[in-house]
Design brief:
Blueprint (H helix, E strand, L loop, with lengths): L1 H21 L5 E17 L4 E4 L4 E10 L3 E10 L3 H6 L10 E10 L2 E9 L5 H4 L12 H5 L3 E12 L2 E9 L12 E11 L2 E13 L2 E14 L2 E11 L6 E14 L2 E11 L13 E11 L8 E10 L4 E10 L1 E5 L1
Antiparallel strand pairs: 1-2, 1-3, 1-17, 1-18, 3-4, 4-5, 5-6, 6-7, 7-8, 8-9, 9-10, 10-11, 11-12, 12-13, 13-14, 14-15, 15-16, 16-17
Length: 334
Amino acid sequence: MRRFIFLMAAALSATLVHAQDAENVGNSAQLSIIPRIDVNPYIGFDSQTDFSLSNSSLYTLLEGDLGDHFSYSIANHWLSIEPGALYENTFHADASNWCDWANLTFYAGDFGITLGKNFMYMGTYENDAYDYESHWDLNSTFWNNFQVYQWGGDISWYYDDEAQLALQLTSSPYSTKPFEGGLFTLNAYNTNVYGDFSYLASFNLVGYEKNAFMKMANASFEYAAGSFILRPELMYRWNDSFDQSESTICASLEYDPSDRINLILKAGFENVSNMPEDLMYSEPDNFFGGAALHYYPLKDNDALRCHCVVSYSPVWNGLSINFGALYNFSLNIK
């Protein structure tokens, strides 16, 4: 299966070179370097305490255009609190590694074809956010365990300014290596914006055994009203025989009292049946929630974000308190 990844990477590189030769006008790129530091004490309700550096990390994001018909995106996770695991898991589909995604998109009219490593299209705003911007302790158990970065491809129809309808085939997070054992996922995805209202929706078939699939139906909505943004989200998952199912329901409310301050309240409930058995770690019924404060101290610039998060989950039976900051160094490359 490693040969498959090398072949796909070689094809991606060859296409990039061909596109650059053929379209030497209009090329552009933007490189972002994003270091993040977190200090994360835990206060256990059973009198136990702990401490970690949480989501301290170093990311880069390179995105650009090659002429009028090609674009590319490469996101790398270079450092974490367990950096060895990022590199030990190279070529794995069942674990995070140093390459979140690396893909090339060809556009023709209202259609686009993407090949390479990408995030699985899922109809949740939780999964839609960049990892380096997210707070793991405010997110669901599913978000914390399901590996959404997979190899494959998709075809998309952009039928309106902010509307996308996509069909995607990727490797499965239940195979150790991409497509090992014939496991794959098939994802149908739709998003659109109507003024202050927008939505994400998907139906996902995720192979976890040969000819056996976990089904997922996901829908998320966003409504913006002045300084407030409300996002309710629903995920429902079940197996082939319908004898196991689980769900995640959550909602967040954001408030921006000024250009420099962002407040987030979030709460959710999960009913987890460990389906398949090795996916989850959680109480069967799991309430999670908390609050986050984001502060942007630079005038007319949101590159520096300072944050404080307080959250609760029965997984650690206590409070997680997270203080941190990230900086987005952004460079335009011609």
